[in-house]
């Protein structure tokens, strides 16, 4: 009998983390963290003045002006989203699919999280007409939608929403009185920044958008949790900032002092940090493009990755082969591909997609294998995909998907 829920794989406890970069920690960051660790002490809730000023400088350089008194830091984006959801109240709207950690925090607070379909060309931002229909339906059923979480540079789809779509969706949300949280964790990982236009909702509706950036997306290792939030100007933004600090205080949610020092250094974007980021983005763009070519060549479906360290794959065209292996839903597909590939392949149900849909997120960080020296070599090589450690991983990926294609063709051939 078909399962209606993943057995033994709780949606929160087994949810996938942010895609890692697979690279050794940058020496300059290690030095800053080690120096701060030797001094002891702790950060205040919401972050020190120095950390908040560094965050303001980061946003100023991206055209988003802010005040240090309207910034809060926390040990990761989940803490900030939990505090924002608690402070705003009401029901939460998220795209389908969406980052694995968005919906659980609404459920943790006893709030419904309603998924809104995204258009075919990109993920992260709901279709505006679907958004209006969802708000209408939720209100007709007695709900109280107040918060829309979206991401222009998206996890899990690795797409970047076009500005015209974002304009329509933001206008629809504003017309319905929704507050927007813009998760901009991946905005600095555009694979082709000269040919990709990224617009923040905060540039359009500065008084209705809170911007959240998890530094694990581009500036810090995922194991050093730190995130910053930029609150809107005006009385509403001031009150929301105060309520979020109340929640963070109740949770004693502080950035560890050594991590805060490394975060402040990284947010300042000195040359070593920007050079390392550019090299890492180039590497993962190459890996993502090669992985995309592989899965599409095998008959699977995937939007071309435009940002981040991942791609989102729909294996529906290969369903005959999956069925032959006893794979009938996304959880079984996750287990099957994780074992076959030797790397995490979280199913689409982790990201709000239907359990029956055979979709997975593949992370390019898992394709960077070997020792610290070998992984660091991938950053400096002019042809990183030809290095043995990357070549082996890509060959394995191609072998697994080509086998599925061949098996699907055999099952579909007349007998």
From TrEMBL:
Pfam families: Aminotran_1_2. One of its GO terms (molecular function) is transaminase activity. The keyword ATP-binding does not apply. Its cofactor is pyridoxal 5'-phosphate. Keywords: Aminotransferase, Pyridoxal phosphate, Transferase. Residues 38-224 form the Aminotransferase class I/classII large domain. Residues 1-21 are annotated as: Disordered. InterPro entries: Aminotransferase_I/II_large, AspAT/PAT-like, PyrdxlP-dep_Trfase, PyrdxlP-dep_Trfase_major, PyrdxlP-dep_Trfase_small. SUPFAM superfamilies: PLP-dependent transferases (SSF53383). Belongs to the class-I pyridoxal-phosphate-dependent aminotransferase family. This is Aminotransferase class I/II-fold pyridoxal phosphate-dependent enzyme. It comes from Streptomyces iakyrus.
């Amino acid at each position: 009998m078909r399962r209606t829920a993943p057995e033994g794989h709780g949606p929160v406890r087994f949810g996938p983390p942010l895609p890692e970069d697979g690279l050794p920690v940058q020496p300059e960051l290690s030095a800053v963290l080690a120096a701060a660790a030797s001094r002891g002490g702790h950060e205040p809730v919401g972050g020190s003045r120095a950390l908040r000023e560094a965050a303001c400088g980061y946003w100023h350089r991206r055209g988003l002006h802010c005040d240090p008194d309207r910034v809060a830091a926390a040990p990761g984006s989940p803490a900030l989203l939990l505090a924002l959801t608690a402070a705003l109240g009401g029901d939460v709207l998220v795209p389908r699919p969406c980052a694995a950690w968005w919906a659980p925090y609404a459920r943790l607070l006893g709030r419904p999280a309603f998924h809104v379909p995204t258009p075919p060309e990109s993920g992260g931002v709901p279709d505006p007409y679907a958004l209006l229909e969802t708000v209408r339906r939720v209100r007709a059923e007695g709900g109280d939608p107040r918060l829309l979480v979206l991401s222009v540079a998206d996890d899990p789809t690795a797409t970047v929403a076009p500005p015209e779509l974002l304009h329509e969706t933001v206008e629809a949300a504003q017309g319905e009185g929704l507050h927007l949280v813009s998760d901009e964790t991946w905005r600095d990982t555009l694979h082709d920044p000269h040919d990709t236009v990224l617009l923040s909702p905060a540039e359009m509706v500065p008084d209705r958008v809170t911007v959240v950036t998890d530094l694990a997306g581009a500036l810090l290792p995922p194991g050093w949790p730190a995130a910053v939030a930029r609150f809107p100007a005006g009385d509403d933004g001031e009150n929301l900032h105060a309520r979020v600090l109340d929640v963070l205080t109740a949770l004693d949610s502080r950035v560890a002092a050594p991590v805060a020092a490394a975060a402040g250094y990284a947010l300042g974007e000195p040359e070593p940090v920007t050079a390392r980021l550019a090299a890492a983005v180039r590497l993962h763009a190459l890996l993502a493009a090669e992985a995309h070519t592989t899965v599409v060549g095998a008959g699977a479906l995937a939007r071309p990755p435009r940002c981040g360290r991942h791609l989102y794959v729909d294996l529906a065209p290969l369903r005959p082969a999956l069925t032959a292996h006893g794979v009938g839903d996304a959880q079984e597909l996750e287990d099957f591909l994780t074992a076959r590939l030797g790397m995490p392949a979280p199913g689409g149900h982790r990201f709000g997609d239907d359990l029956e849909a055979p979709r997975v997120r593949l992370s390019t960080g898992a394709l960077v294998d070997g020792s610290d020296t070998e992984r660091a070599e991938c950053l400096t090589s002019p042809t990183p995909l030809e290095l043995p450690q990357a070549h082996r991983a890509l060959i394995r990926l191609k072998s697994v998907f080509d086998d599925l294609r061949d098996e699907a063709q055999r099952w579909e051939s007349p007998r």
